[in-house]
Specification:
homodimer; 162 residues; alpha+beta; 6 strands; 25% helix
Chain lengths: 162, 162
C-alpha cells in the first residue's frame, strides 16, 4: 500500500475500506473479555435492555473500525498515530450479522509550528453498516510525517485528490 | 454491587476501580485482531517507531478501561450507556507489564427535559498506570435511569457523597 505524507493530504479527500462481518459469537467473545454487560453477552438479557436485542460493545465497534482503517487506503506514513479524538458516538447498535465498512474524510490540515518534520490532520471517521447507516462516528486529530524536501511526489497527490 | 440512579450522583463524586496487568502477549494478541501496526505487534519494529518500544493499541487501553469500569464501584442502573465521548487521549503509551486502574469523576448532572425517566451525567474517566501517570483520558456523556418516585434512597446518596 502507498504511504501518504502530510503533503499528500487535502481537505475533502475521502478514503474507503473493505468490509467485515460481525457475528453473535464475536460480540459475546469481545464482551466477555472487555465489556461484560448483559446486553453484550446474552440475547435473552439483551431483549429486556435499552438495546432490545444483542448489540456489540461500542469499544468492539471502535476496535473493528481500527482494523478496517489499518487495511484501508488511508495509510499515513509512520502509522495512524492519534493525538486526540472527539465526538465519538455510536448512533446505531451493531447487531449480529452486520457488515461494517469505514469512510475517512479529511476535514483540516495544519503544519506543526514547532516541529518541521510533522503535521496534523483532522479526519472524520464514520463506520457504516450494510444498510449504509452510521454505527460509529468520531473526529480524530492525527500526527502525520512530512515528506523530506526534494522528494515530493505531486503525481500521487493529484491522484488522491481526484 | 449497588446500582446507582440519576438521583444518587453528585458533581465531584469519584469512583475507583480494581487493577489489571497487561502483558506483551495481550498487547500482541489484541493488535493482531484489531490494530495490526508494527509498533503494537513486534518489539524490534516498535523500537524504531515513534513509540520507541512495544506499546498497546489505544483501543486496547480503551477496552481494558471498560472492563475495569464494569467491575468498579461506578454502577449506573441499567448499565453504562454512552451517548457521546470527547477529548479521548492517550498521553502515555501502555507498556508490557503495566498495571492499570481507572478513576471516574462526575463533572456535570442534567435531567432530561423530554424524558422524565432518564438523566445525563458527564464524567471524566482517567486510566492510570502503576506510576500514577495517565495513559488514557476521556469525557463521557452517559444516559442514566432516574429512580422511580417514592423509592428514593437518600442514605445511599449520602454515603456516595461522603
Amino acid at each position: 500500500m502507498v504511504e501518504l505524507f502530510f503533503e499528500d493530504f487535502a481537505v475533502g479527500q475521502t478514503f474507503g475500506s473493505g468490509r467485515r462481518k460481525i457475528e453473535a459469537e464475536d460480540i459475546k467473545r469481545f464482551a466477555a473479555e472487555f465489556d461484560p454487560q448483559p446486553f453484550h453477552l446474552d440475547e435473552e438479557a439483551a431483549r429486556g435492555s435499552l438495546f432490545g436485542g444483542l448489540a456489540a460493545s461500542g469499544w468492539h465497534t471502535a476496535a473493528l473500525t481500527m482494523r478496517l482503517l489499518v487495511e484501508s487506503d488511508f495509510q499515513p506514513a509512520g502509522g495512524r498515530i492519534g493525538a486526540s479524538f472527539d465526538e465519538l458516538r455510536w448512533p446505531q447498535p451493531v447487531r449480529p450479522g452486520d457488515e461494517l465498512r469505514v469512510e475517512t474524510e479529511i476535514l483540516e490540515i495544519k503544519a506543526s509550528k514547532s516541529k518541521p518534520e510533522i503535521g496534523f490532520i483532522k479526519v472524520k471517521v464514520t463506520t457504516l453498516n450494510q444498510a449504509e447507516r452510521a454505527v460509529q462516528e468520531y473526529i480524530a486529530n492525527l500526527v502525520v510525517q512530512r515528506r523530506q524536501k526534494g522528494v515530493r511526489k505531486p503525481v500521487l497527490r493529484d491522484a488522491r485528490e481526484g
